[in-house]
Structure formats: C-alpha cells, structure tokens
Request: fold
Amino acid sequence: MSKNSIQIFDTTLRDGEQVPGCKLNTEQKLRIAKQLDLLGVDVIEAGFPMSSPGDFKSVEAISKLVKNATVCALTRANKKDIEVAAKALKHAKKPRIHTGIGTSDSHIIHKFNTTREKVIERAIEAVSYAKTFVDDVEFYAEDAGRTDNDFLAKVCEAVIEAGATVLNIPDTTGYCLPNEYGAKIKYLVDHVKGIENVIISCHCHNDLGMATANAIAGIQNGARQIECTINGIGERAGNTALEEVVMILKQHSNMNLDTNVNTKLLNYTSQLVQQSMGMYVQPNKAIVGENAFAHSSGIHQDGVIKNRETYEIINPEDVGVSKSSIILTARSGRAALAYRAKNVGYDLTKIELDVLYPEFLKYADTQKEVNDQDLHQLLSSKDNFKKSVNF
Ligand code: KIV
Ligand code: ZN
Reply:
C-alpha cells in the first residue's frame, strides 16, 4: 500500500445493518457484498458472527463469495467471539478479525466495572488469540474519541506488540470536533512505538453531523483507512458516508490521496442499499440524494446551462448520474424554460419564449414543480408553436 493510498473499509453490512429496520437476509447481504467488491472497497465488514446464527451464516457465505476485498468479522474481546468469527471467515481469501474493547473511563467504569490495567490485559489477550487464527487483526478501542490520549497510546502500543495490523480509533459517540479528532490521531502517530508498521483507521459516528469531517481530519493527520457505510447509515445518526469521503478525496486532488473505488458505481450502489434496506436518503443528501445535481433557481439554471461548472463541483457522470437536472419551478428563468422546452421537442424563438414565460410562471405558482407532461400541455396549447422534433 502506498503512503498516498486510503483504504476504504465498508461497514454497511455490520454497523449499517444493525440499525433498526435495516435488517437484511443472507441473499440480500450477498447481493450488496458483491456490489461492494465491484465498487472497489478494500475491506468489507460482513457482520458480527457471534451475534446470531443468521449473521454467522451471512459472514460465511460472503467469505466464499468475495473475490477481491478483505472480508472482516467483528468480535468482542473474548475467546468465544474470536473462535466463532475465525470459523465464519474460514473460506475468505483475505480474512480479518476485528476485535476490541472500550477504552474510555466511561466504558471501563460503567460497562466493565474494571480498571485500565485489566482493559490492556484483555486487549492483548484478544489480539494474541485472534492472531492464532488469522494474520490480519484489527483492534478497535471503543469510545477512543472520549479516551484520554495518554492511556489510548498505551493501549495502542500494547496491541501493536501483540500483533495488531490495523488500529481502529472510533469516535463511537460522534462527540469529537474535527480538530480534536485530528489531534488525537497525530498524538498517536507521535507517541506510539511501532505505529509506523500498522494502519490507523478512522471510524466516526455522526451524532453531531461531523462524521465525514472527522474522518477527513483523521487522514490529514496520518490515518490511512476510513471506516464508512453507503449512504452514511449506521448506529443512531449513522457513520461516515462512503460516497462523501471518496468524492472529497477525488475532488481535492491536491491532497494526493487516492482510493480504489470506482466512483461511477456510487449512485447505483446507493440505490441498491436504499432499496434493499428500505432506508431512503433525504433528497439533499450529498452525492447520492435526488437533488444532488438538480438546479431550480433561475440564476443557477442560467449559469449551469451556460457552463455546468458554474454551480457544480462534481460531474454527475463521475458518480453514475447521467446528467444534471434543470427543475422547473416558479423560481426558474427563461433560460431554463427554453432548455426544458427543447428537451421535449420545441426549439422556441425569442418571441415564443416571451409569450410562454408569463403563462408558465402563472402555472408554476400553483405547482411545486412543472414536469414534462405539464410543459407539453402548455406548449401544445399554442397552435402556432412548431415542434422541432417529432417524438
Ligand atoms: O462505533 C464503534 O465504536 C464501533 C466499534 C465496534 C468498531 O462500531
Ligand atoms: Zn460504530
């Protein structure tokens, strides 16, 4: 892996699928895993095999199916979980066990009723045990976002020594500010012995709407893997959205950081996950929302018709959307009306446009949106408007 390559770890089928209402059957999970492999993600977190027989079966089936990506299974820091995960991953070409434990004082005191020292012991034991099954072991320090940096560094150093290949630093509760999360990663880079031999991973939640910004801050400070989900689904307010981080890196090419993702498949993959889970994104969702490439105000429409780049920083074709859309509303101008009329077969002259525009506005004021059907009716009511193309 080059220093400039960012590994995309997709957890749609684990952190995403654990969301209420998003449960999938094995067949649906296989369809999504196949698509993620095609999309070019580096790691597919297929599930938490110990959590249920159904999840075990899915991880096993995904392990047999996936051709390119590493297949990863989640465990808690205990032997039984690790044994079950190893069994589910038996057929994977590139298996990874993802084990870990809470490291914040809140988790240590309230969840485990134990001490920092005991948590380090359990972390070492879990990683060492996982290493007896697979070479690739990722360790997560749950609630790292609220873990004291000095203690977190001690935990990281201990698990690296035990054989961890990837260190996941989750902002489990989505609490960190981007500069705090970035500084946490930098602290680990500067203070943990052996960290240069492992990959640091960002796993950020979106409770305060900062999951994407935090993941980017993480990689700007030395992390080289981002854990994310299609459409940003995940516990509570969700996780970092895969399509967002991938497109941020693509559009900001001066960062010199690349992923292996084929961005042209992003829109289709998003649709597949939405439909399979019945969890639909809001229209203004970045990259994959229905309005992500739609322009409705007259000023913007005029600009986009003259040159797309006036109001679009992403070429829709780059994410698998065939073109930008010019939406007709009461805020649209003449340029948009002429453009859409042309699309339905009428090449209007200036005089025709002058006649049509006030009528269009009157009608548009009564509607949320003027569609092609409405436009046809308006245009065909004008006997002397000639159709330039016959459909
Ligand atoms: O948010 C989190 O901390 C997690 C871990 C289990 C990796 O999902
Ligand atoms: Zn999570």
In short: The radius of gyration is 25 Å. Residues 15, 140, 142, 168, 170, 172, 203, 205 surround 3-methyl-2-oxobutanoic acid (ligand 1) (CB under 6 Å). The chain has a mean pLDDT of 96.
